[in-house]
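Objective 1.3, modelling of assemblies. Example input:
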Amino acid sequence: MNGKQKAHIEFTLNGERAEVAFAPHKTLLEVLREDLSLTGTKHGCELGECGTCAVLLDGRSVLSCLVLGLDAEGRSVQTVEGLADAAGLHPLQETFADTGAAQCGYCTPGFLLVAKELLAHNDNPSREEIKEALSGNLCRCTGYIKIYEAVELAAARMRGEEMELPREAVYGLE
Amino acid sequence: MSQNSDHKNFKVVGKPFRKVDARAKCTGQTLFADDITLPRMLYCKILRSPEPHALIKSIDVSKALAVPGVYAVITGKDLPIPYGILPVSQDEHALCVDKVRFIGDPVAAVAAIDEDTAFDAMNLIEVEYERLQTITSIEEAIMVDEPRVHDYGDAGNVHKKVHLEFGDLEEGFAAADHVREDVFFYEGNTHLPMEQHAALAHFDADDKLTLWSSTQTPHYVHRALAKTLELPAAHVRVIATPNGGGFGGKSDPFNHEIVVAKLSMITRRPVKVTLTREEVFYCHRGRHPVLMKIKTGVQRDGAITAMDFETFLDGGAYGSYGVASTFYTGALQTVTYEVPRYRFKGLRAFTNKPPCGPKRGHGTPQPRFGLEIQLDKIAEDLKLDPAEMRLKHLVKPESVTANYLRIGSMGLGKCIEKVVEGSGWKRKFRKLPAGKGVGLACSSYICGAGLPIYWNNMPHSGVQLGLDRQGGVRVQCGSIDIGQGSDSVLAYVVAEVLGIDPFDIRVLTADTDLTPVDLGSYSSRVTLMTGNAAIQAAERARELLSKAVAEKLSLPEENLAFAERRVFDVENPEVGVSFAEAVVLAESRFGTIGTVGSYTPPRSPGRFKGAGVGPSPAYSYSACVAEVDVDPVTGFVMVERVWIGHDIGRSINPMLVMGQVEGGVYMGLGEALMEEMIYRANRNVVHKFPSLLEYKSPTTLEMCDVKTYLVEDADPNGPFGAKEVGQGPLLPVMPAIANAVYDAVGVRIDEVPITPEKVLAALRAKAQGKDARYGPKGVPAVDWQEPLKVLTPAEGGDGREMPRVAVHS
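Predicted structure (tokens):
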């Protein structure tokens, strides 16, 4: 980027005011990872094909590889690093961890954020609604099943219901 | 292992604990290779060949070197030493020296101040090629001897030809009531891990090299770096970062790892490379396309009398694991149903495509696909229920197969019974309405390769334990977690033996400076081998603690139990000490407490050349029923549900086992219906679609429902009886779906992927009264060498090759 002028933006990042300077052609994904050192957001293709780099922009999921960093100016961005707070993990993070929904964990940040968006609009999604919402995210490890179970469990707990995974999800059928 | 039999009251084993690294992975804290940066780090870009087969006439890097911000440009001349994963296939160069063999072969590399500069400079490198005729298929490789893709191999463009014969085949076929010959094709496909390969090298001020890499085999990368860079191995450190998915695709030492190491040595700065998704397709090492012919003789009840198996593998442009892959296409046919006489002919071709290698199931899903469909056809010919026919002829536990594989525990019968009952097989098979169908298939997989990749007598896995006087336990092991949970398995196993909480254990893995060698995360070896090594190390530590505590409490050692972070008298549980106090007592008595454990697989009974592939300490088994809905208008196959039974021996953690089963079914579904690595033969053998969008893989919308049954029958060689689950459950899915498609619409699709076009073509053929089948018509005629003959155990064989009889022509 020799001799090229950097862009400078201010925005809200995981609830905090942030400012950053970067080469203006950079994607939000690159700005987050390279200029803000938030490497929790991953990349799988950088072409908008896999959902791995999903983050929330003003509460809506976007593929950060298809959004210019400049587009975040004045807006609110949430990444996986902003899901937990001092009080603990987000219920989705708890259930993804406890059910084995994160195997290699590489696609997990993207799934968490898209699932969070889903639960913000629908506190009791059906299995079909979960599949639909997550259909833009690829996972090669889990076959998605533990992910559905984690989302269902988190949704129930966020509704204040006591719920555990059904026995067959943990031990298989008798 | 003493832990296998008598433990009824496990505290950790068999419990669904979360993984030790689960929260890190859900918070973005896990550092993958591309997440690591170092001060003054340079970025690397690799120029790849646009030609599928060409001589390199010249390379001019002067324009690239002149770009401000470029620190080094290297070519094949800078890395002249060849390497490869197998000692017999040292046929790769980190950068091509004098010729390129596929589109994507690496030719030159740039290190620059940032990725954009590296990319711009890379595009200024001028390479002059002289095109060579391409070899595009197995058939072409067999027919066209010149030009050769490599100047080694069994003939022309045939990399490897093997021919093994166990027992008198002709006698076996003569004893058959029915003989079938079928031809199948299994298209190649790729691992598609979500994480692209990345590596960061740092050659430091003390002339020591450290490489962080997304690799499944840090030990083999360590060896390859020392060799190609001509560095003492003691000066090279490889740290495998958590793999963002592997599936076999990160098991070779890769050119980009060697390239960044070399660039770091030249520039004296850290250098990182992260492959683009397109480049990951060119790394490949995925499923070999396999054409196969199977001739099987059976008696009226379905008992197999003889099997003659012929496989042809399209290996792509390099050896990789290909010799092992070739043997694997012939190895495991005998471990499910009794096969008293068996012949295997296998041929691997070199072609101008990205190299094939090991993908989940390594060389065994392809023959299993053919075999399980053929058995379905045989059952129909004999008017037998395919489930009952299989159940009747299962290999016996504690037996030796015709090709000298020693079977331990064998739970396939229970797996079949579970899925037959759970799926409602008896009321569905051949009875569902048109368009709907069920199909059944079974399989088996190794729990770790019995032999290492390079010949040696050392353990396959080592574990080192350190106990600190405040009660902490450190487990060090060379294994690498690729998402399967191997770090967690180490913690669970040690926690079980020492009676502590798995989350009190610090697991330190996959660092060649700090951890004893484990051969790597491949061949489903990690739970069994590192698990056993960890048990041994933990038992040795337990012994030291027992001695010290027994002395202190004046109790016999055998009275002591380890549980709930305490060491206590089993007869009087209040009498005891905390685990931390026990460590203090032991350290006071014996000095610093550290123990080691190691694991070497038992020697296999086969003594013939080629007996090295197939033996394993144990075999897992799986049975699968798939239910499909086939649309006769579009040819579209929807898999509604899969019932799968898996013989796990014993679950160290059932929840993680479930995850592996479901993931295996998922990947099998993709291979069955859509995944394929294909090339445009008439357009320079260019990859048709090296992208995640167009290389179709199942999304949530295609993924089927999965009903899993875990069959537990502890294996004497497994840690606490455990067997593998990472690869086995993928294997039966593809043939079960193919058999279900036949049940649904009466057409045989004898190749994968089962695309709508193929289903429609077969339906059209059926409507026209032609062969209601889609698949290959035959296999190439090959002049096979005389077989290496081995008498079977039943014939009184000793596992050695029979003396050859001279043949005069």
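DSSP finds six helices and five strands in chain A.
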